[in-house]
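Forgive a beginner's question, but might I ask you for the amino acids of a protein and the tokens describing how it folds?
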Amino acid sequence: METRRPLIVDIKRDSREDGPGIRTVAFFKGCPLRCAFCHNPEAQETGPEIAFAEERCIQCGECVKACPRAAIALENFDRIDRSRCDGCGQCAAVCRGGALRVIGAYWPVEKLAEALLRDAAFYRHSGGGVTLSGGECTMFPAYVQDVLRRLKAHNIHVAVETSGHFEWKAFSRKILPHLDLVLIDLKLADRAESIRYLSQSNESILHNLRRLLAQDTVEVRVRIPLIPGITDSYGNLAAIVDFLRAAGAHDVSLLPYNPLGLAMYRRLGRHVPDLPSSFTAPEREQELFKIFRGIIAEPTKHTDELIRTAGTIRQPPFAAQQQATTCSRKCLTEEREL
């Protein structure tokens, strides 16, 4: 039985990047990974957090008076003492300038399902549906199962976005039977690099991905985020293609680097990753797509590390060549709100 109540960071409507057609996306709060390049840092922790946009602060001092834990001081550069703050939101409630916002709110299952069904007409006309994302929505299998059941009762196309790092037994029993599509990111093929950049071994990710690709009831789309200097090397892409070919992947796409999440690190009082603050140049993107096509055309050999972590792997035809250069520039022009 789940002891934590899942919080929702945001509900994004009219999305075109998180599955087919027009979709509504619910972003869950909480993730077992701590990727060094996380695009949604506000969705990492399971509890509520306060985001502070310094440029909107009018120095009224109302937040200092309202905070029951004395966690705010106007004279401090960091403003919020995160060790004291419990995310209660009383400061945000009195903030005149809109500089403070609570991230994460609990939605009862029926209320979330109701909100997601609001755009059902758009889903049907566009071939769209609902996508549960995060964070990592699979951390809350019982809650997600209840939401999915309500959506499927209305014949809504449903998908989940996942890192692949989840407990297979709960996922396969409670979530997978209700899905139409799984969007799964595969960032790094090497175990040591995964520990370094994701905070966890990729053993579970590879194991779960192999199992997903082995079943034939739910569509699986694999995405490779291109993070400069981390995931976009020839060696990493070659090893990933090698693994996907052996596992039987048929739908693979590259996700260009998106820097829009960097501002949120500052607003949460966290260290900002040493990553480019601008999108990857189109020339570099095309170079990476060309490299990727070349890797697919000339298969690489299985690495010992992949064999050790993924177990015995089969060698079915690899049919991703036509789709491998699909580009989903997520949130390319979207302005990140506070």
The first strand starts at residue 7 and ends at 15. Confidence is low (pLDDT under 50) at residues 300-338. The two ends are 34 Å apart (CA to CA). The chain has two domains: 7-45+107-327, 49-103.
